[in-house]
């Protein structure tokens, strides 16, 4: 099973990038040029996505801080240390205090996470928590893709009452 979500940028509302989009909307990758960025560590695949997006827009990103998790990234951005670029930059159901977020416009600005688990046996606390959060994403309507137990490819829209479609 895969979770597929868009990348977002987040900064304090007074940041020049946020001021350029007073009514919201999506930010182009080129709009990130010249801004101090806060990214996720290289071992997390989203950093490579950020670098490809910036290269495609004709510049090299100025990453001034690296975070190991989205929550740490949000805390750095909330202190006006740069523009956070990641997924889940705004933890919880509402906005993170002191931050404003905008989606990146490029359709390639997506993050994907895969879930693999044992077919039988008990789950540890971390696995239970991960499964619970992924189920919340499905209920929130985020798109999920993967393979079922028989190995067939499936795609789930995550809407209540919808079923996974085989592909």
Fold blueprint:
Blueprint: E1 2-6, E2 8-11, H1 16-19, E3 26-27, E4 36-40, H2 46-56, E5 62-67, H3 70-78, E6 83-86, E7 100-104, E8 110-114, H4 125-139, E9 144-147, E10 153-156, E11 165-166
Parallel strand pairs: 3-7, 4-5, 4-6
Antiparallel strand pairs: 1-8, 1-9, 2-6, 2-7, 9-10, 10-11
Task: Give me a quick take on this structure.
The chain is built from 4 helices and 11 strands, in the order ββαββαβαβββαβββ. It has 167 residues and is α/β, with parallel strands linked by helices.
What would you note in describing this structure?
By secondary structure, the protein is an alpha/beta fold. It contains 4 helices and 11 strands; from the N terminus they run E-E-H-E-E-H-E-H-E-E-E-H-E-E-E. The strands form 2 sheets. A 6-stranded mixed beta sheet has the order 3-7-2-6-4-5, with helices on both faces. Residues 157-167 have low confidence and may be disordered.
Instruction: Tell me the radius of gyration.
Output: 17 Å
Query: How many strands?
Result: 11
Portion of residues within helices:
10-25%
Task: Give the neighbour order of strands across the main sheet.
Answer: 3-7-2-6-4-5
Characterize the largest beta sheet: strand count, sense, and whether it forms a barrel.
6 strands, mixed
Question: Mean of residue pLDDT?
Answer: 78
The number of helices is 4
Order of helices and strands: EEHEEHEHEEEHEEE
* pLDDT < 50 runs, ≥5 residues: 157-167
Anisotropy-based shape? elongated
Distance between the termini: 13 Å
Strand content: 25-35%
- Structural category: alpha/beta
């Amino acid at each position: 099973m895969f979770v597929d979500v868009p990348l977002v940028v987040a900064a304090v509302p007074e940041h020049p990038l946020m001021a350029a989009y007073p009514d919201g909307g999506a930010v182009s990758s080129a709009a990130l040029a010249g801004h101090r960025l806060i990214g996720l560590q290289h071992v997390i695949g989203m950093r490579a996505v950020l670098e490809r997006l910036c290269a495609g827009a004709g510049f090299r990103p100025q990453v001034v801080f690296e975070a190991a998790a989205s929550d740490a990234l949000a805390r750095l951005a909330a202190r006006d240390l740069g523009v956070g670029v990641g997924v889940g930059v705004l933890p919880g159901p509402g906005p993170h205090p002191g931050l404003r977020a905008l989606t990146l416009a490029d359709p390639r600005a997506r993050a994907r996470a895969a879930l693999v688990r044992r077919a039988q046996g008990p789950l540890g606390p971390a696995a239970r928590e991960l499964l619970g959060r992924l189920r919340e994403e499905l209920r929130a309507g985020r798109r999920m893709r993967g393979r079922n137990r028989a190995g067939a490819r499936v795609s789930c829209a995550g809407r209540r009452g919808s079923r996974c479609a085989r592909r």
